[in-house]
Amino acid sequence: MNYLKPLGLLISLVCFSFKPADPPTKSTLAIHEKAITIDTHCDTPMKFTHSAFDIGREHPASEGRVDIPKMEQGGLDAIFFALFTSQRDRTEANYQRAYELSHLMIDSVNKALDRYSHKAQLATSANDVAKLSEAGKRAIYLGMENGFPLAKDINRVEEFYKRGVRYITLAHTSNNDLCDSSTDKKGPEHNGLSAFGKEVVSEMNRLGMLIDVSHISDKAFYDVLDHTTAPVIASHSSARAVCDHPRNMSDSMIQALAKNGGVIQICILGAYIQPEDTTSMNYLKKQALRAKYHNFDYKNDAERKQAWAEWHQINKDYPPHLPTVADAVDHIDHVVKLVGIDYVGIGSDFDGGGALTDCQNVSQFPNITQELINRGYSNEEIEKIWGGNFLRVFKQVEATAL
User: Fold this and answer.
1) How far apart are alpha carbons 350 and 362 in whole angstroms?
2) How many CA atoms lie within 13 Å of 217's alpha carbon, on the beta-carbon side?
3) Residues in CB range of 332: below 8 A, 6 or more apart
4) Total count of domains within the chain
5) Which of 320, 347, 378 is the last residue of a domain?
6) What per-residue confidence (pLDDT) applies to 73?
7) pTM for the whole structure
8) Rounded CA separation 12/65 (Å)
9) Which of 181, 204, 242, 347 could form a disulfide with 40 if both were Cys (CB 3.0 to 4.6 A apart)?
């Protein structure tokens, strides 16, 4: 997710006008349905803590991009729900707030899934998705976005693992106790991975927990690769050579990731797919809003709601331009040409900013499959992109657990 994560719901609250892509053909839908399809990053759990979001009901685009009916319509077998906490000052009060919020989101997800256990279940192992798919159910995995809730307590890694968390995105938009962020305006604090960050990486290896390098600085990324004994993932990142953004991965990073045996999951958030138009009124108004609310570090819930309302109004008055599925698949093409078919997948960042003109929610994922077919990808290659590559890494990480 980008700098807007505390306002992630706001992007989901906007109904963008767009010209739909040609619908997928019957043969495309058959190929899509056969594949084990996995989206490795969405921010839907934020909705559970701010509203009575019913995951079992289909919602319009103005309310949410992920729910069980949309997953069924889009042939999506599994998704990772991100437990997102924004990076704040490292005080005891803020550590505790992030810790409690993470547990609240886990509790909220479990409560929602208990209500719809006949349709979806919490998944904790790589093999669960196939088992649940055979039973006609959707697999919901948990990831933690930002290591902030760990505070400086290494025991919390296992605590969250036991609650079902299967990856940790080590940092978010600012530096934390684990490592430097790719987008902290203050620059590096640890010159990569901190001493505590190295402890966390080792503990995640021991547990068989996926290490997520999205959002972390280039130096922190290479430090992780030097320290880990297992492959790593970038749960929602794209290619810097196609879109020059510090959140994206450079060619040398992608090559190092492939050498590690890991996988980059292409993120379909607009600013990571195409360079933003920094002269547009939408961009300028949002920059002013960021400054007004101190990069969305809210003082209280009332201020958060007010910021949401203003963000919504900006998108209504000055609709943003969204990239297309074809633009997103350009990133997949780039990775495949650079390192081969075995190291790329998809992590949408839906409900946290992700959206394309012709892929507004998970029900439209077959549009991506259609574009892959149009470009000559084989059925086997499509299966690798949609889940095979990620599951290979997941299983390898599980196998390294002590």
Assistant:
1) 8
2) 23
3) 266, 344, 372, 385
4) 2
5) 320
6) 97
7) 0.92
8) 7
9) 347
| Residue 188 burial by Cβ neighbours in a 10 Å radius (0-12, 13-18, 19+) | middle
120: which DSSP letter? E
CA torsion 304-307-311-316 (nearest 10°) is 100
For residue 57 the two structure tokens come to 């009901």
Distance CA 175, CA 361 (A): 31
pLDDT one-digit tens code per residue, 152-175:
999 999 999 999 999 999 999 999
What residues in the chain have per-residue pLDDT under 50? 1-18
Q: Is 161 helix (H, G, I), strand (E, B) or coil?
A: helix
Backbone angles phi, psi at 61, to 5 degrees: -60, -25
Contacts (Cβ under 8 Å, ≥6 apart) of 286: 4, 311, 314
**Spatial CA neighbour of 352 closest among 73, 139, 145:** 145
- Rounded Cα gap, residues 223 and 230, in angstroms: 13
CA distance linking residue 286 with residue 187, whole number of Å: 23
Does one domain contain both 182 and 202? yes
Query: CA-to-CA distance for 257 and 240, rounded, in angstroms?
Result: 14
Domain boundary (301, 320, 339) is at 320
Question: How many beta carbons lie within 10 A of that of residue 399, not counting itself?
Answer: 10
Tens of pLDDT, residue by residue over 234-256, are 999 999 999 999 999 999 999 99
Q: What's the one-letter identity of residue 138?
A: R
pLDDT value at residue 308: 66
- Taking each helix axis as running N to C, give the angle between helix 251-260 and helix 218-227, from 0 to 180 degrees, rounded to the nearest 10: 20
Q: What pLDDT score was predicted for residue 129?
A: 98
Q: Which residues of 94-108 are buried (b: 16+ CB within 10 A; e: fewer)?
A: bbebbbebbeebbeb
Burial degree of 92 (CB within 10 A; 0-12, 13-18, 19+):
exposed
Residue 167 sits in which domain range? Answer: 5-276+322-400
The rounded distance, in Å, linking the Cα atoms of 202 and 170 is: 13
Given this model, what pLDDT does residue 307 score?
Answer: 76
What is the rounded distance in angstroms from the CA atom of residue 357 to the CA atom of residue 16? 8
337 sits in the region (left: phi over 0; alpha: psi -120 to 50; else beta) called alpha
